[in-house]
Amino acid sequence: MISAALGPQNKTTYNGIGQVISTTAENQNGETVEESYTYDQFGRIATKTSNDGTVQSYTYDKNSNVLTYKMDKDGETKNDIAYTYNSLNRLTKFDNGDMMFTYSYDKNGNLFVVLNNKTFDYNYLFTYNKANLPTKIEMDYEKNSYNYTMSYFANGQKYLEQDTVNNVLNEYDYDSLGHLVVELKMVDNATVAQLEYSYDKRGNRKSMKSFNDATQTWDVVTDYTYDANNRMTSATRSVLGDVTNTAQYYYDRNGNTLAEQNKTYTMSGEESSDMALSGRVGSSTTKVYTYDRLNRLMQYNDGSTEAVYTYGVDNLRASKKVNGEKTEFVWNGQNLAGETTDGISTIYNYDVTGIAGYKKDNEEEVRYIKDPHGNVIDMQQGYDFIGSYDYSAFGNQLTSTNEDNPFRYCGEYYDNESGNIYLRNRYYNAPTGRFISEDPIKDGLNWYSYCGGNPVMSVDPLGLAAGDEFKTILEAAIDFDTEYITTSKYLRMEVGSLIYSYESSDGETVYSYAKPIIGEVHSVKLDEVAKDLPEGAIRVAGVHSHANSQQFSLDDMMWAQHPVLGVPLYMVNVENNALKLFASDLQMNIYGGAETYIGDDSSAKSGYNEYNIDVKTNIRGLSLSEEIALQYVYGSKWDEHMKEDCGFGCINKNWPNGPRDWNIKDSAFIKEWAAKTLSKRYK
Questions:
Q1: Using alpha carbons only, what angle is made at residue 614 by residues 611 and 619, rounded to the nearest 5 degrees?
Q2: Is the pLDDT of residue 441 over 70?
Q3: What is the predicted pLDDT for the residue at 416?
Q4: CATH 3.40.140 matches 473-620
Q5: Which of 281-285, 417-421, 501-505 has the lowest mean pLDDT?
Q6: Domain ranges for the chain
Q7: Deepest in the core among 71, 334, 502, 665, taking most CB within 10 A?
Q8: What is the largest CA-CA distance in the chain?
Q9: pLDDT single digits (tens) 241-265
Q10: Are the C-beta atoms of residues 10 and 26 closer than 8 Å to each other?
Q11: Could you give the dihedral angle defined by the CA atoms of residues 230, 234, 237 and 241, in that order, rounded to the nearest 10 degrees?
Q12: Is 233 left (phi over 0), alpha (psi -120 to 50) or beta?
């Protein structure tokens, strides 16, 4: 049995074949959160037991899709779900006894129909354009209906969203970099909100203006300033030209806000001042934040409300205590499965669109109604509407009629006590459109920005930065290496993507890569990534990992030289985390640089050559929760492959957390990763 310390108060224990069998986390109050795991014969999680009396159990089909999920609390069943899938492993049915959803998909894999035909009848119908963007969503309930239509610019940016049944209209406009600069919200032809945003060259919000429809003036203006590290240093709010509020922010060398000083000006010109110590970003006069050494929010105090937060070894929030009232959380992967407050349990259910509803002890199921962005806009219990919400594009609440419900903007958890939204890795502050702490994976150039300034087309459920753009193709390939080499090494499977080019606002050609896919042990179908390329994007290279070999295969070379699909191909070598490139000499001026030619005479005759690219990158590690998720989703793929008695060296590279012995070299590597949090990088 092997134990690895994850910190001075955290511990993970492994069995002899490297499976996590228990985790222990002790918070600053001396409270302990313990979890233990069991596995089936294929290394997939069978049970997860917590020391609060919660037991979660799973069964799987032959493709490792979850067939059943059950949650028991102190011997009483709280949730019991059965899942059904089609031949493409897409979910087609969800049934928990109270609700039953059925799903249908179009030929492109887009969700087409959602039906709930159990205790309460409603259905969703989706329509898409050629770019697979939704253009219409029809939602019919027994006593209400919603009919959304969406329109897009040629570059795929949404400029219009309209609910024609309830007479709700949202209009959007963007700058040349894709930042949201104007949003207009109207209900029954009356303006609810009209906001205008401006940005500095680093993507920080420079100003926010609110238009008064009655006076036809931009009567409320907030201006922001930042330091060289994109940390907000001041915010100044003016009404009709007169300053009403100012805030100054001060940071330590780690990027944490050390102090927030707020000043409120009266009509007579007098001012009052408060100092909020140990804080990060706050919007009221006195908000005090306290963090642990992993930069997790541990305490919040605004003078009238005191909150204490604890976290498990998986870095997810285990509990919060607000003014003495404690709530304990239970997680199913990255989804909040349930919570308990004062002995009352609330169970949360999800469908393919995200959070679907909840059920409290001895109460009728509550269903969430969401807009196309995933925001909870209405709550329905039986035939009664018990709550409604409206938001700006960045999630600032415009209206709210049920303060007890936690799931709101983007279907994520809203903390009433602080006004922040919990996004697993950090907290988001909607009024400022920024996170209260740095991006833990340090993605991109701005570590506080939310969704790159475009919350209309993007969401960030994990509190990690949206995708970046790169000046060269090689930079994009190196970033792929940085982010996905560990996943490929851990899975022993290939991961791949397509690098594409597009024109930036200043007319320059820039590059990015599409959302990567996980393939098989010796292959990944890069052509499947093409459907995720933005409209107007030009694919310029392929990039993939070799989890079990170091050389380009014949298929790789044929793909790169294809007369129609072919573009130069990068390969990440998992043995030393190096890049290789298969390309023609002519293309080397664009796709590489001064790399080392390693091709032989046969490859030279084809007009394409193989090159080594010497790069040094900081590789992102996997969190414990990521490892666990990857285990039971992909573990059976490796086992099925091993049954074929592969002759390419796989027999000595076993699945790290499966039923067979570990490869000794990789065992140490992966356990080292298990001892790190998502906020750390490995060099």
A1: 120
A2: no
A3: 92
A4: yes
A5: 281-285
A6: 473-620
A7: 71
A8: 85
A9: 888 888 777 766 666 666 667 677 6
A10: yes
A11: -100
A12: alpha
